[in-house]
Amino acid sequence: MIHVDSRNKEQRQDVFFYHYGNDKDARDLAYNLQTTFEEKYEIFQKGRGYKGYVDNRGLYMLRKVNPTAVYVELANIRNKSDHIRLMESANRQALANWMFEGLTGIK
Predict the structure, then answer these.
(1) Closest Cα to residue 25, out of 69, 82, 89, 64?
(2) Global pTM?
(3) Gap between the Cα atoms of 100 and 1, Å rounded
(4) In 82-106, which positions are buried (b, 16+ CB within 10 angstroms) versus exposed (e)?
(5) Structurally, how many domains does the chain consist of?
(6) For residue 27, which of 59, 2, 57, 3 has the smallest C-alpha distance?
(7) CA angle 102, 6, 21 (to 5 degrees)
(8) What is the CATH classification number for the domain harbouring 46?
(9) How confident is the prediction along the chain (107 residues), in pLDDT tens digits per residue?
(10) Angle formed by the axes of helices 80-87 and 89-104, to 10°?
């Protein structure tokens, strides 16, 4: 599941990932996605650092879905820098590529 948050406009956020409960597959997938994003940030956002994280959340969408699921928070739509991450097509494509790599392990 992909989500864009709406927080304080001053709050910039990196991409982060939620899984539910003791689902090892979902937890492993979330950490694989996070690792992929850490690697990509190191290449394409050199020196900026990556503060994305993985967390266990009891979100309805994660609790009530049968297949393995990860909830991906892409950005804070109210923050200008995050907004650019979503609005520029090259940025959206990079996010899609990185998610594909993290989901499939194909680089």
Answers:
(1) 69
(2) 0.89
(3) 13
(4) beebeeeeeeeeebeebbebbeeee
(5) 1
(6) 57
(7) 50
(8) 3.40.630.40
(9) 998 888 888 877 889 999 999 899 999 999 999 999 999 999 998 888 889 999 999 999 999 888 899 999 999 888 888 888 889 999 999 999 999 999 998 87
(10) 80
